[in-house]
Specification:
By secondary structure, the protein is mostly helical. The protein contains 3 helices and no strands. Helix content is about 45%, strand content about 0%. About 5% of the residues are buried. The mean pLDDT is about 80.
Length: about 80
């Protein structure tokens, strides 16, 4: 998980992940596993609920950056549930 967070936060490619997080193949292989098993959604929901509990969430203004995700015709969009 730390290797994936490193890629997200630093913007580096998978091949440039520091060895202390495991091999690039292991880190990269773990990423789709987390997605396919809805683990990202569970983490997101826990963080969101914690933010609501602490009264720290204001979703009146929010956005997501999807410029690197190609749009494919006829595919259903992926949505993340943001309801408490």
């Amino acid at each position: 998980m730390n290797g994936i967070l490193y890629v997200v936060m630093s913007g580096c490619t998978w091949k440039n992940v520091p060895r202390r997080y495991g091999s690039k193949s292991t880190v990269h292989r773990f990423h789709p596993y987390l997605f396919e098993h809805s683990i990202y959604q569970k983490i997101f929901n826990e963080l969101l609920n914690k933010g609501y509990d602490l009264d720290k969430i204001d979703i009146s203004h929010c956005f997501t950056d999807t410029k690197d995700i190609p749009a494919k015709k006829w595919e259903k969009p992926i949505k993340m549930d943001t309801k408490k």
